[in-house]
Amino acid sequence: MNVRVRLIATATALILGSLQAFAQDSEEREGGIVGTGIVGEITRLGSIYVNDQKIEITGTLQVTGAVPALTAGDLQPGHTVAVVATLEGDVWNAQHIRQVLPLVGIVEDVGDNTLTILGTEVDVEGQATQATVGDWVAVSGFWKEGRVRATRLEQLSDWQGDAQVSGTFFRASSGGPDKVGNTVISGIAPQHLSSGDLIRISGKPIPGGIEAERLETGLFDAVVGVVQVEGYFSAPQPDGLYTVLGSGLVAYTDQPGMIDVSVRTFQCGANGMLGEIPSSGLTPEEIERVRAKLNCL
């Protein structure tokens, strides 16, 4: 199917956890409503705004995956998050929030408006940072090709935890190392993953990469129906597969030149695919209501 048709045809989404071996815990529907996934940068507070959507929060709600530990009331503009929300009337209410951190690790090099962390170059233009080689830094932001465009940096002066990388996995060519971005993965061979899967890896920092001790898939802490994601498209793979980097939503195109990897975009998808309608979980009326609220065309 033509890529433009796929992207315009619908905008509803469902990201299910990927592998049984690493599947994350999920919740059953509560009150007959499946949560909606909203993934992107917090741009302002009161409660929080993500992708121009105002999401009401409870300040004491624990933010999972946060470095350092956060509650919802601690979130600030620039943090990137994956929110499971329910639409009650015309209001989004957050049920779960996960901080999305493309990289947590030791600074290996400092350049002109760049840091290199776990082998991946981070564009820090516009970000206030005094980070030097050897410092631990948690990076909020978006993958753009093999780099990360930072939206917020947190220096971790007393961090005793793991290094982390979260992003899109592409199967390496024969003989090549497994990577997320330009971060080399060792320690755990991600044998059962497919290109385009979203993975989260934690472990020990090593020069140019991470020695993985734990691997998980999926963005959300509960079952979701519609998902809206913010980010950059990947360049299409030889088979035409492409994704919004860091989302786990994929599509295929026979016109790779139509995929603009330079512009941050908002996209929706379903069943792990860009532009598909959920096969279960939401009624047609719920789908249309959520689509309209998220401006998914």
What can you see in these coordinates?
This protein has 297 residues and is mostly beta strands. The chain is 6% helix and 44% strand. It has 2 helices and 22 strands. Strands 1-2-3-7-6 form a 5-stranded mixed barrel. The radius of gyration is 18 Å and the shape is globular. It starts with a helix and ends with a helix. Residues 1-33 have low confidence and may be disordered.
Q: Provide the gyration radius in Å.
A: 18 Å
- Secondary structure class reads mainly beta
Helix content class: under 10%
Q: What's the count of strands? A: 22
The biggest sheet amounts to:
5 strands, mixed, barrel
Question: What is the global morphology?
Answer: globular
Major sheet: order of its strands? Answer: 1-2-3-7-6
Mean pLDDT: 86
- What is the N-to-C succession of helices and strands? HEEEEEEEEEEEEEEEEEEEEEEH
Oligomer: single chain
Keyphrases for this structure?
297 residues; mainly beta; 5-stranded mixed β-barrel; 5-stranded mixed barrel; 22 strands; 44% strand; disordered N terminus
Give the helix/strand layout.
Blueprint: H1 3-9, E1 35-45, E2 48-50, E3 53-56, E4 62-64, E5 70-71, E6 80-88, E7 91-99, E8 103-111, E9 114-117, E10 120-123, E11 136-144, E12 147-155, E13 163-169, E14 179-180, E15 183-186, E16 197-206, E17 209-217, E18 224-231, E19 241-243, E20 250-252, E21 265-270, E22 273-274, H2 284-293
Parallel strand pairs: 1-18, 3-7, 4-7, 10-12, 15-17
Antiparallel strand pairs: 1-2, 1-6, 2-3, 4-5, 6-7, 8-9, 8-11, 8-13, 9-10, 11-12, 13-16, 14-15, 16-17, 18-21, 19-20, 21-22
